[in-house]
TrEMBL record:
<feature type="transmembrane region" description="Helical">
    <location>
        <begin position="136"/>
        <end position="155"/>
    </location>
</feature>
<feature type="transmembrane region" description="Helical">
    <location>
        <begin position="51"/>
        <end position="73"/>
    </location>
</feature>
<protein>
    <recommendedName>
        <fullName>DUF3267 domain-containing protein</fullName>
    </recommendedName>
</protein>
<feature type="transmembrane region" description="Helical">
    <location>
        <begin position="106"/>
        <end position="130"/>
    </location>
</feature>
<keyword id="KW-1133">Transmembrane helix</keyword>
<keyword id="KW-0812">Transmembrane</keyword>
<feature type="transmembrane region" description="Helical">
    <location>
        <begin position="20"/>
        <end position="39"/>
    </location>
</feature>
<dbReference type="Pfam" id="PF11667">
    <property type="entry name" value="DUF3267"/>
</dbReference>
<dbReference type="InterPro" id="IPR021683">
    <property type="entry name" value="DUF3267"/>
</dbReference>
<keyword id="KW-0472">Membrane</keyword>
Length: 185
């Protein structure tokens, strides 16, 4: 296989820049979503009696997001590197990396599964529990903010040839193609 493109995530985006972009996305998402959601779904009164569950949802969002990245590629076993580091002794920092090439469609599926599934689940929850639409709007904004790095990755990968393979490294990822594809380009 030949390398079609290398994306140095650290150089191109930087962790601080991506963090700020994620925070801005969270804030803008909440501002944009809250008014329409509260208008369409919220009855006259919003409840705040499930605040503990809301905090629990905030705490579990990141591990759930990472778990949903992992599930589509879990069957690949040794091609996937998993690492959990505990921050402040209580909160997990979870890393899931593909260190051997996998197909572009599988990588994209694993990349976008948390964004799509959690966002849909929270949108449906607005219908089912309209008195808590404010909680779901905050959770949705948080989830979309968590997905900003995934979207940045995905935009680069979507431009790659259909039959490409993706392999992650410490600095970003490589888009690989077979030798015969190089001759056809």
């Amino acid at each position: 296989m030949n390398c079609w493109k290398t994306v140095n995530y650290s150089k191109q985006y930087g962790s601080q820049r991506m963090f700020i972009l994620s925070l801005i996305t969270m804030l803008l998402t909440f501002i944009i979503l809250y008014i329409p959601l509260s208008y369409f779904f919220a009855p006259n009164e919003l409840y705040d009696n499930q605040f503990v569950l809301f905090i629990f949802g905030i705490i579990l969002m990141y591990p759930l997001h990472k778990l949903l990245h992992y599930l589509p590629v879990a069957h690949l076993g040794s091609k996937i590197r998993k690492r959990i580091e505990w921050k402040y002794g209580v909160y997990p920092f979870i890393e899931v990396k593909v260190h051997e090439p996998i197909s572009k469609p599988l990588f994209l599926f694993a990349l976008f599964l948390p964004f799509i599934s959690i966002t849909i689940l929270l949108a449906v929850s607005c219908f089912l529990f309209p008195h808590y639409v404010h909680y779901f709007a905050i959770l949705m904004a948080y989830q979309i903010g968590l997905s900003v790095p995934d979207i940045a990755y995905g935009l680069n990968i979507l431009k790659a040839p259909k039959a490409a393979f993706i392999e992650e490294n410490d600095d970003g990822f490589e888009i690989l193609i077979h030798h015969h594809q190089v001759r056809n380009m």
